[in-house]
Design brief:
Elements lengths: L2 H19 L11 H8 L2 E2 L16 E2 L7 H17 L3 H12 L8 E4 L6 E4 L4 H27 L5 E5 L8 H4 L5 E3 L4 H5 L10 E5 L1 H8 L19 E5 L6 E5 L10 H18 L3 H13 L1 H26 L7 H4 L6 E6 L2 H7 L5 E5 H5 L13 H7 L3 E4 L5 E7 L2 E9 L5 E9 L6 H7 L2 E3 L2
Parallel strand pairs: 1-2, 11-15
Antiparallel strand pairs: 3-4, 5-6, 5-7, 8-9, 10-11, 12-13, 12-16, 13-14, 14-15
Organism: Starkeya nomas
Protein name: Phage head morphogenesis domain-containing protein
InterPro entries: Phage_head_morphogenesis_dom
């Protein structure tokens, strides 16, 4: 290895180390690819208000409130991309944006009309606070998503996350109470409390080993120091009503509305959407082998294993509540499915026409993959969905239009229920083996309420 290659590799590893600890990516270090991938996967979304792109939509939509022109929004995205790529700070970004926006007439006050009504507001990016909010909200969300991606890939060696004390000079008291919390990587707490947790939030987390977690949790608390604990605080939820859309969202106290989702979890959904969009425009004979390659990839395996672990945890929580004679509905708030969808099959034009599907790609979410821990399937078994849909044993239930596909392989019988979503694409509700067989009363009773599709 040459001296240049050695130095470059050292710089790259240093950048990854900064990302893993939640630190800033400083100038002089290359930005980890996970950060750039997250940001570059976003599509332009011109919107009048920050409320128009909500929650996890930010994982796949790039928006700047008040910017309704694609060409102006594209300049913002290019400016932030450059800052991320080179690890530069706000001052250089501001100078760059002045150069980009002046020729477009956007450096100074602009009156913008809401396309959905008669509202009008003034947008002025020469005001430092306005531009700074745009810069840091995008940069910190991208870094958080990149950090989460790396955490998922290294959690076997570093299975715990520590919420560290913020570096802000005027920390929020609500955020200080989370400092010292140590929980497993896949604990539901990190789905809502993975920083940043608000506008201007500078909180951070650090990934640690099991030995480090044990050592910190066994440390006696110091006066005025951090108390390390492995139980999240009892959280109160408040209802936030998005005045632009009317959507009601449960947001934990202490977290700003709109920042209550983990950008990394949203990214996993984004990847599925991107793959689905690409496959829907790919000829069927090319889409089919590509989907099978996706299912064979480590990323799909990791998705299935995470879903399985989360499903087991949800089931345990529900059982504990049920045994205690309590309602289990709250589990959906405390342990919500991420609902990240991955493509598992494609259908031909003839079947799409017969069932009224507008899109050919068939997806399965983590909820479908692990909703019932009693019959988990290896990741490779999801290839069966394609075989089922290519076969001739497909039915439609009359009561709700849900599709039933069946197949027998090597003496084993498998069934899959598939829904036609509102967007016109097929989504697997469940896939499971049946010990009862195709000609048993169990299956015959089901088919009595169905019509054969083919």
């Amino acid at each position: 290895m040459s001296t240049t290659e050695y130095i470059s590799r050292r710089a790259f590893l240093a950048g990854l180390a900064l990302l893993a600890t939640g630190a800033r990516v400083e100038q002089g270090f290359p930005t980890p690819p996970e950060v750039l991938d997250y940001f570059r996967d976003k599509k332009l979304a011109p919107r009048f208000s920050w409320l128009d792109v909500w929650g996890e939509e930010h994982a796949h939509a790039f928006t700047v409130a008040g910017v309704l022109e694609d060409k102006v929004l594209a300049e913002f995205r290019a400016g932030i991309d450059q800052a991320l790529t080179h690890g530069t700070g706000f001052d250089k970004f501001k100078a760059d944006m002045e150069r980009r926006l002046k020729p477009l007439g956007w450096w100074g006050p602009r009156r913008v009309i809401d396309p959905e009504g008669t509202k009008m507001k003034t947008v002025d990016f020469t005001r430092p606070r306005r531009l700074e909010t745009t810069f840091w909200s995008n940069v910190r969300a991208a870094r958080a998503a990149g950090q989460w991606d790396r955490i998922q890939r290294t959690k076997r060696a570093l299975p715990f996350i520590l919420y560290v004390r913020t570096t802000a000079g005027d920390p929020r008291q609500e955020h200080l109470r989370w400092a010292g919390i140590i929980l497993p990587v896949d604990h539901p707490f990190w789905r809502t409390h993975f920083p940043p947790n608000g506008w201007g939030c500078k909180c951070a987390v650090r990934q640690i080993t099991a030995a480090q977690a044990e050592r910190l949790l066994g440390r006696p608390p110091e006066d005025g120091g951090i108390i390390y604990r492995d139980t999240p605080p009892a959280e109160r939820m408040r209802t936030f009503v998005n005045k632009r859309t009317g959507v009601r969202t449960q947001v934990p106290d202490g977290i700003d509305p709109g920042w209550h989702t983990n950008p990394g979890v949203g990214r996993s959904r984004t990847l599925g959407r991107i793959l689905q969009d690409q496959l829907d425009t790919t000829p069927a004979d090319m889409a089919r082998p590509r989907i099978q390659k996706i299912i064979a990839d480590d990323g799909f395996l990791s998705h299935v294993l995470r879903a399985r672990r989360f499903g087991i945890e949800r089931a345990a929580v529900k059982k504990a509540l049920k045994d205690a004679g309590r309602e289990t509905a709250a589990v959906d708030l405390s342990h919500p499915w991420p609902r990240a969808a991955w493509p598992v099959a494609t259908i031909n034009d003839g079947l799409a026409r017969d069932i009224g599907a507008k899109l050919r790609t068939v997806t399965a979410t983590d909820a479908a993959m692990a909703h019932n821990p009693t019959h988990p399937l290896p990741a490779a078994m999801w290839r069966l969905v394609q075989l089922m849909l290519d076969g001739s044993d497909i039915w439609r239930r009359r009561s709700d239009g849900r599709l039933l596909a069946m197949i027998e392989i090597d003496g084993k019988f498998y069934m899959s229920w598939i829904d036609l979503g509102a967007g016109g694409h097929l989504e697997v509700a469940t896939l499971y083996p049946s010990s009862r067989g195709r000609d048993t009363g169990y299956v015959r009773n089901i088919l009595e309420g169905c019509d054969r599709v083919r």
